[in-house]
Amino acid sequence: MRILLSAFIILKCFNSAALAQDLSRFSNACSPDKPYACIELGDEEMARNRFSKPPGPDYFLALAYFEVACDADSAKACKTAADISSRKLPKKTPTRDLEPAFTLYKKACALGAAESCLIAGSFATNQLNQSYIPDPAAAAKLLDRGCTLGEMQACRKAFMLYSRDQISRKDPSKSVGKDEAKALEYRIKACDLGDRKSCRYLK
Questions:
Q1: Burial level of 52, CB count in 10 A (0-12/13-18/19+)?
Q2: Residue closest to 102 by CA, chosen among 75, 64, 133, 129
Q3: Which of 45, 52, 72, 150 is deepest in the core (most CB within 10 A)?
Q4: What is the tens place of the pLDDT at every residue in 1-57?
Q5: Do 25 and 41 form a contact (C-beta atoms < 8 A)?
Q6: How many CB atoms lie within 10 A of CB 127?
Q7: Those residues with Cβ within 8 angstroms of residue 137's Cβ, 6 or more apart along the chain or in another chain
Q8: What is the CA radius of gyration of the chain?
């Protein structure tokens, strides 16, 4: 968080009055024991910068707000911080490292954010992060949790994962073998959650 805040200060140094005001709000209103205040301030910073292309320095402060709330175990804050880190920041931004986003998505998943389980599972299968070594075993756990939490696409991806051998050549211990019984189980769950394609195959 300190790195992000420092980057924000550098990017916004041209407006010292606005910087002083924002830092005052950050230190006084947002703290680990006030996660909802951090979320509100983060939402405000994002709304302020919504129409900027590329996203401006307000996103760095928003990210810092959401990370504080995430540290206080807010699933929403973890998910939003991950979204900002992986999608909102300019591609050439030094802080736009997808590994922290993956970590944030995993935490949001653990805290009950079903969509985050789906996204983290996609990270683990190397679908969203080309620099990450595929980890089918981790993906299976993340997608299973997402499916259990009611995320239809997580069930469908879990079905696809178990439909064939998933080999991690760089680390065989992370591989997942084909399991037709599990694949069918996830296809049924996907159907139950409204996936028409899965339902058609079950007829």
A1: exposed
A2: 129
A3: 45
A4: 444 444 444 444 444 455 445 555 555 678 888 899 999 989 988 887 765 665 566
A5: yes
A6: 14
A7: 168, 173, 174, 175, 176
A8: 20
Do 69 and 35 meet the contact criterion of CB atoms below 8 Å apart? yes
Q: How many residues does the chain have?
A: 203
φ and ψ at residue 71, rounded to 5 degrees: -60, -25
User: Which whole-number Å values give the CA distances from 163 to 100, 140, 143, 156, in the listed order?
Assistant: 30, 12, 14, 11
Q: At residue 99, what is the residue type? A: E
Q: How far is CA 102 from CA 25, 65, 122, 167, 180, in A?
A: 28, 18, 10, 21, 29
List, in sequence order, every residue forming a beta bridge with 176; answer none if it has no partner: 166
1-10, 106-115, 118-127, 146-155: least confident range: 1-10
Sign (positive/negative) of CA torsion 200, 128, 81, 75? positive
Tokens of 111: 């805290």
Quick one: tokens of 17? 């009055």
The Cα–Cα gap between 191 and 152 comes to: 8
Give the Cα separation of 66 and 5 in Å (integer): 12
DSSP character for 134?
A: P
CB 105 within 8 Å of CB 154: no
Token pair 């990370």 in the structure block, residue: 67
